[in-house]
Amino acid sequence: MRKIIPYKSKVDAMKSLDNGGRFYNILTKAEDGVISQSELGKVSGLFRDKQKMILFLDLATSKLDANETKEIFSSLSNEMQSVYDRYSSKELLIHEVKEKGELSKSLVITGVPKKIASKSDFNGFIMIPIVAGKVTTFTMIPIVDTYDVYEIVADKDTFIIAHAKGSQKLPEQRIKVAGVLKELKSKKDETTSEKYLEVVYYLDL
Predict the structure, then answer these.
(1) What is the superkingdom listed in this entry's lineage (predicted)?
(2) What is the CA radius of gyration of the chain?
(3) For residues 180 and 105, is the Cβ–Cβ distance under 8 A?
(4) What's the CA gap between 90 and 99, in Å, rounded?
(5) Are 106 and 68 found together in one domain?
(6) Beta partners for 159?
(7) What's the total number of domains in the chain?
(8) Could you tell me if 154 and 197 lie in one domain?
(9) Would you call 200 helix, strand, or coil by DSSP?
(10) Structural domain range at position 71
(11) pTM for the predicted model, two decimal places
(12) Cα-flanking dihedrals φ and ψ of residue 35, to 5°?
């Protein structure tokens, strides 16, 4: 998980995004007016996860006006424009997520996160893959074994969000969080499931 400081202008955004990529991206040129995957990967801190690269771009440009944002997106390479069309995030109110949120899609919500202190306060399970040779099986583990878990609150509505243990904690103040919507199960009844947001980025409001 990473805190994002949004760009203040199109000039700042292009200077950061049109960066030439890493040293081994010899075919990628800085300041050529085209934002490639390697350039977006460099500034987002990712290598291959295109969905999270686009999530970074959405959040980092969220303070720009519509015209500036449109110009930046038009500077994406043809490949990355197709990736953006596939992975662009949706922003919802907390009470809308259960009905309108789609699993495996990028989502942005706003509220105040309140950390769930212990396993006794929350009983939810996630599926994780176990690979043995060429065989992949799945098992369920308590989400609190792998993630720091929070309830994010807006007005009287709440929703479960989580991020990997070991990263910084979310501040208990009104923030915007962005991540991928995933499935949360009850071990006693595997047919029953809810949703939670795996947080990748956040920004202060």
Answers:
(1) Bacteria
(2) 18
(3) yes
(4) 13
(5) no
(6) 152
(7) 2
(8) yes
(9) strand
(10) 2-88
(11) 0.86
(12) -100, 115
Residue range 172-192, pLDDT digits in tens = 999 999 999 999 887 656 666
- Same domain (yes/no): 32, 100: no
Q: What is the dihedral of CA 200, 50, 154, 122, to 10 degrees?
A: -50
27 and 12 belong to one structural domain = yes
If phi > 0 it is left, if psi is from -120 to 50 it is alpha, else beta; for residue 73 that is alpha
pLDDT tens digit sequence for 124-163: 878 777 887 888 887 777 788 888 999 999 999 999 999 9
> Rounded to an integer, what is the distance from CA 198 to the centroid of its chain?
7
Tell me the backbone φ, ψ of residue 30, rounded to 5 degrees: -75, 150
DSSP 169: P
Length of the chain: 205
DSSP H or E stretch at residue 1 = none
Pair (6, 64) in one structural domain: yes
